[in-house]
Amino acid sequence: QLVESGGGLVQPGGSLRLSCAASGFSFSNYRMSWYRQIPGKGRELVAAITNNSGRTNYADSVKGRFTISRDNAKNTVYLQMNSLKSEDTAVYYCMADWTLINREYWGQGTQVTVSS
Q1: What is the rounded CA–CA span in Å between residue 65 and residue 15?
Q2: For residue 41, which phi and psi values (nearest 5 degrees)?
Q3: 76: which residues sit within 8 A by CB, 6+ positions away?
Q4: Span 30-36, mean pLDDT?
Q5: Which of 29, 45, 64, 65 stands the most exposed, by the fewest C-beta atoms within 10 Å?
Q6: Which of 51, 99, 57, 58 is nearest to 75 (CA)?
Q7: DSSP string over the chain
């Protein structure tokens, strides 16, 4: 199970920190990702981090503004979002996947709204 939190309403230029708490599976074996979705569009990969935090990757639209991190001791992944723009408004989803066993999990999503 994945449970996101930390979404909300923020003004342009502001910051938010999303959290995703995992339970029921071996978190430290899974790559963790954040996706986002705007109504009427498909889900977009925002950021991903390998199971041991060795590598991260980001969508071009968020590079330099967002940072993904994880704490395997707490079974939690984070997304620090700075310099938010109106176009960052979306539902943000946490996803865990382990390709070796072809298993993935999705959270229920958290709404982020950037507006003045």
Answers
A1: 9
A2: -125, 165
A3: 19, 20, 21, 22, 70
A4: 97
A5: 64
A6: 51
A7: -EEEE--EEE-TT--EEEEEEE-SS-GGGSEEEEEEE-TTS--EEEEEE-TTS--EEE-TTTTTTEEEEEETTTTEEEEEE-S--GGG-EEEEEEEEEGGGTEEEE---EEEEE--
Query: Do residues 93 and 106 touch, judged by C-beta distance below 8 A?
Result: yes
Residue 72, judged by CB atoms within 10 A of its CB (0-12, 13-18, 19+), counts as middle
Structure tokens at 67: 């940072």
Residue located via tokens 């029921």: 24
Answer yes or no: is pLDDT of 41 > 80.
yes
Q: How far is CA 110 from CA 2, 3, 16, 51, 89, in A?
A: 11, 9, 12, 23, 11
| pLDDT of 52 | 84
pLDDT 10s digits, 44-103: 999 999 988 789 999 999 999 999 999 999 999 999 999 999 999 999 999 999 988 899
